[in-house]
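Anyone able to model this chain together with 5-O-phosphono-beta-D-ribofuranosylamine?
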Amino acid sequence: MRLAIFASGGGSNFQSIVDSTISGQLSAEVVLCVASNPSAGVIKRAETLGIPVHVLPPSFPKDYPGPDQPNELLQVLAEHKVTFIALAGFMKLVPGFLIAQYPGAIVNIHPALLPKFGGKGMYGRNVHVAVLENGETESGATVHLVDLEYDTGAIVLQEKVPVFPTDTPEILAARVLKTEHSLYPKALQIFAK
Ligand code: GRF
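re: yes, here you go
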């Protein structure tokens, strides 16, 4: 499996996926990092690891052409012979042309137990604030297939973490993120096999 990881932030999930390919836990090769903005911390991580980076234009995907015209992103993915895409903290909605090119081969990780606490606006800190405000006693992480909506695709794997009455959004986020780091490689290995 030749993996491209799409990210917008610090890239700790990117790092854990690459680490799991190096340790042999995940039978895949991370061949490309696609960043949604030039200041994403993930870029430095990819450069340190010698993994090629493609930075999307700010207007992505609005400025992308129709199906019969050259499409820079699809070209880059083809150049690197990408067979599977993992979104890891990617803050843009995935356009239809990408889903059409990679049917059933794009997954995302979400920092809650979907279908609860998903959808538009449910990202980053907002998710953990909502979980705490709702008085949940457990949260977790979900890896799911990507479709044309936010967080609605079929669930691949989930892992729970406890929520404690003393949790702040930051403490809960850190607990969930730690779980993401082991869950995402496990979920990707299902596809790699
Ligand atoms: C993770 O919590 C992920 O679930 C969410 O964004 C965060 C990304 O963290 N979608 P990182 O950039 O992988 O450190």
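The first helix runs from residue 12 to 23.
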